[in-house]
């Protein structure tokens, strides 16, 4: 039987394919723009036939029909490894639960501990050898599909095929069902325009990045601002080793700054795990020999990250307390995003020769009532600690950049207060004294 004969034998309508799901099953949707829209809709239509079906997703941008169609969660229970803005709103409504993790361990969780009865994801069309590429979900797909009892692939003709060294595809012989159907254009995620604080923070970061550095840029507007400023700088021969490839890297490529020429690990290739951004980004990564996707168990392994000399990791956070604990995923008890790979890259960059790990944030924010609040706080009250104080490294606000590594509690407090918004420094000083961090005779 040829691979095309096998393909046709496994071809099903979405409605036929989702009959594989039974009550009590665990179903996996993988991640981001590889979310299986047709299968999700067909499965939602079976709501009243099913009970206690549990789902795992990851940075899915919605709509997720199985979550929205069952507000009482009697039939479907949706969970995510990392909240997108859409999934955050589901959490606010009680329609989604967060699964704590660090990305480097995601494959380990599946291989050792988790059950996957049915895995579903979107993929580009099959190639002539019978392989389906994992596209923008390569970082997480293989371990999930390897663990699944049943694998259903939904062909999305718009997805880019992304080259890789390993773990980037599955053969038709390992697939149970294939679904075809029409899909709209791929979701795009415009880059937010930087404001004065963003530019001030980026201006502090750019001088810290040497020519030949390898970059990891996290989610959010700040990494894209840094990428834009680097594109206009004199820095040359930058490399890419990142969990997420976004538009900042495409901008650097267009400016001639992203060459990967001086990387010791995978020279000439930018390494990533997942991809989402603009249409231009999808076109750039598609069949591009200079971009390789691989499982995050490899891409996010600190020992692997550290093999890149001058590894520069730039991520964002929500708040930091005077002890140096970093929260990048919740506002109090409200889940905002997730741990993701921030701790992976903070660790890997610290171990790299010449490497540095930066956590960035605005010093303050203004709430909907016009009241300003500090993002540097005396201590956390229910906020989730993403990066423990024992691994705190560089922290950056628009008022400065400080290095907390190896610092005593009073030194950390002094450094953090120095980059806090001026309106809160006296208040933070008093808190440091009350918490017995600051020696009474020393005013920070």
Automatic annotation (TrEMBL):
Keyword set includes Plastid: no
Annotated positions binding CoA: 218-222, 318, 341
Enzyme Commission designation: 2.8.3.-
Lineage of source species: Bacteria, Bacillati, Bacillota, Clostridia, Eubacteriales
Active site: 243
Biological or metabolic pathway of the protein: Lipid metabolism; butanoate metabolism
Protein name: Probable butyrate:acetyl-CoA coenzyme A-transferase
GO terms for cellular component: cytoplasm
Domain Acetyl-CoA hydrolase/transferase C-terminal stretches: 277-432
Similarity field: Belongs to the acetyl-CoA hydrolase/transferase family.
Source organism (scientific name): Eubacterium pyruvativorans
EC top class named in words: transferase
GO molecular function: acetate CoA-transferase activity; hydrolase activity
Compartment(s) where it occurs, according to its Swiss-Prot or TrEMBL record: Cytoplasm
Function: Coenzyme A-transferase that converts butyrate to butyryl-CoA.
Residue ranges occupied by any Acetyl-CoA hydrolase/transferase N-terminal domain in the UniProt entry: 4-183
One GO biological process term: acetyl-CoA metabolic process
UniProt keyword Hydrolase, yes or no: yes
Keywords: Cytoplasm, Fatty acid metabolism, Hydrolase, Lipid metabolism, Transferase
Pfam families referenced in this protein's UniProt entry, alphabetically: AcetylCoA_hyd_C, AcetylCoA_hydro
Catalytically driven reaction(s): butanoate + acetyl-CoA = butanoyl-CoA + acetate
């Amino acid at each position: 039987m040829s691979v095309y004969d096998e393909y046709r034998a496994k071809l099903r309508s979405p409605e036929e394919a989702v009959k594989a799901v039974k009550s009590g099953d665990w179903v996996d949707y993988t991640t981001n723009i590889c979310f299986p829209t047709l299968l999700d809709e067909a499965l939602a239509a079976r709501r009243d036939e099913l009970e206690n079906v549990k789902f795992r997703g990851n940075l899915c941008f919605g709509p997720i029909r199985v979550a929205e169609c069952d507000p009482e969660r009697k039939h479907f229970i949706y969970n995510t490894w990392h909240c997108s803005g859409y999934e955050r709103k589901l959490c606010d409504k009680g329609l989604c639960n967060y699964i704590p993790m660090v990305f480097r361990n995601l494959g380990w969780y599946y291989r050792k501990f988790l059950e996957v009865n049915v895995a579903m994801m979107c993929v580009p069309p099959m190639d002539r050898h019978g392989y389906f590429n994992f596209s923008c979900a390569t970082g997480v797909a293989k371990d999930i599909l390897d663990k699944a009892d049943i694998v259903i692939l939904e062909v999305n003709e718009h997805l880019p095929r992304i080259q890789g060294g390993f773990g980037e595809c599955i053969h038709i012989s390992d697939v149970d069902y294939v679904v075809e159907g029409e899909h709209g254009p791929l979701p795009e995620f415009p880059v937010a325009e930087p404001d004065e604080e963003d530019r001030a923070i980026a201006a502090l970061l750019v001088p810290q990045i040497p020519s030949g550095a390898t970059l990891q840029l996290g989610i959010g507007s700040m990494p894209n601002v840094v990428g834009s400023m680097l594109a206009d700088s004199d820095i040359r021969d930058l490399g890419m080793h990142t969990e997420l490839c976004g538009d900042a890297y495409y901008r650097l490529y267009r400016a001639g700054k992203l060459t990967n020429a001086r990387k010791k690990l995978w020279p000439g290739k930018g390494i990533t795990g997942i991809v989402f951004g603009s249409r231009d980004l999808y076109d750039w990564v598609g069949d591009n020999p200079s971009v390789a996707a691989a499982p995050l168990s490899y891409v996010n392994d600190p020992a692997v990250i550290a093999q890149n000399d001058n590894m520069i990791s730039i991520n964002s956070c929500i708040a930091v307390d005077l002890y140096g604990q970093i929260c990048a995923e919740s506002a109090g008890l409200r889940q905002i995003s997730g741990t993701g790979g921030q701790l992976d890259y903070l660790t890997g960059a610290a171990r790299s020769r010449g490497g540095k790990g930066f956590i960035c944030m605005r010093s303050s924010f203004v709430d909907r009532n016009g009241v300003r609040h500090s993002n540097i706080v005396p201590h956390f009250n229910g906020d989730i600690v993403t990066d423990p104080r024992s691994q705190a490294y560089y922290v950056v606000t628009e008022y400065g950049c400080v290095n907390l590594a190896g610092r005593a509690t009073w030194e950390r407090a002094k450094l953090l207060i120095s980059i806090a918004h001026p309106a809160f420094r006296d208040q933070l000083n008093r808190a440091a004294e009350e918490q017995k961090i600051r020696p009474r005779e020393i005013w920070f």
